[in-house]
Amino acid sequence: MKEKSSSQAKKIEELEARLASEFAKAKSEAEKAKAEADVIMAVYQTEAESAQVQAREASEIAQTRAHWIAELAKCQSWRETLKEIHARGFDLTDEIIKAREHEADAGVRASSDDDNDEGSKSGSENGEDLNGEEAAPEKN
Predict the structure, then answer these.
(1) What sign for the dihedral angle of Cα 64, 68, 131, 126?
(2) What is the model's pTM?
(3) Which residues of 24-33 are buried (b: 16+ CB within 10 A; e: fewer)?
(4) Which residues contact 131 (CB under 8 A, 6 or more apart)?
(5) pLDDT tens column, 91-111
(6) CA–CA separation, 109 vs 69, rounded Å?
């Protein structure tokens, strides 16, 4: 009976040792998996933060461009109104020249960096000269 009990105790000890070894191995693998997951999560979090910054910057650029496009439309309307007033006999040559300058400035600001070829055209794109020489109405 003593031998049987001793034999069983030895088997229990062997099983406990094997179980402890398997537990340590599983714990080590779990820690490795957690470390890898933490690294992956940190990378995704950094990418998400970068995407938020880029989206914020794009929104600010779009808002600024929209502002200058609206400003350009106002300047064009202002210049056309001055031309109509001039056509009725009032001498507004200086005001029209100033309006063209403001329009050209707003046009440049309204164009984005990507549109430099098209957007850099000023009020002279319609054959008008900013100095008012070519397209300015004649004084009455």
Answers:
(1) positive
(2) 0.48
(3) eeeeeeeeee
(4) 97
(5) 778 888 888 888 888 888 888
(6) 8
Q: What is the 3-state secondary structure (H, E, C) of 60-118?
A: HHHHHHHHHHHHHHHHHHHHHHHHHHHHCCCCCHHHHHHHHHHHHHHHHHHCCHHHHHH
Rounded Cα gap, residues 3 and 22, in angstroms: 28
pLDDT digits (tens, 9 = 90+) for 67-95: 999 999 999 998 898 888 888 887 778 88
In this structure, what are the phi and psi dihedrals at residue 131, rounded to the nearest 5 degrees?
-80, -10
Q: Token pair 């054959």 is at which residue?
A: 127
Residue 11: strand, helix, or coil: helix
